[in-house]
Amino acid sequence: MLDEHGQRFLEKCFTQAERDYCERSVKRRVEHYAGRFAAKEAALKVLGTGWRGGISWCDMEILPDPQGAPVLIVSGEAGQIATRLGITRWHVSITHIESHAMASVIGEK
Fold it and tell me: N or C, where is the chain less crowded by C-beta within 10 Å?
């Protein structure tokens, strides 16, 4: 996606803060983007919505906490759905290597 759609893809799928974080690591840049993309897909599974109902990629932002663990922040339509579902806390795990990225997300009530 990065090769094919470049900056347009990045701006559509990642917040400025996410792009700033991923761009800091030239060597692992693509891995960081892929991990966040996977985590956003996993968060949609928790919400049970897919990409319908006005959800935007940027409704979900994944940034590291002070210790480096990924933290998911939901807003917009995704945030409203999470509130309706009673989700008050998110647990996120991201793993990636040069060729693969995986993520799991749990929404806690």
Answer: C
Cα(32)–Cα(53) distance, integer angstroms = 27
**Model pLDDT for residues 20-62, shown as the tens digit of each residue:** 999 998 778 889 999 999 999 999 999 998 777 789 999 999 9
Q: Which residues contact 108 (CB under 8 A, 6 or more apart)?
A: 87, 88, 89, 90, 91
Angle, helices 29-47/16-23, rounded to nearest 10 degrees = 140
Asked if pLDDT for residue 102 goes beyond 80, the answer is: yes
Of 66, 68, 75, nearest to 92 (Cα)?
Answer: 68
Q: Return the active site residues.
A: 45, 96
Query: Model-level pTM?
Result: 0.90
Which residues have C-beta within 8 Å of that of residue 101, sequence separation ≥ 6? 31, 34, 35, 37, 38, 94, 95
Q: Locate tokens 């339509």: which residue?
A: 77
Residue where the block lists tokens 């840049």: 29
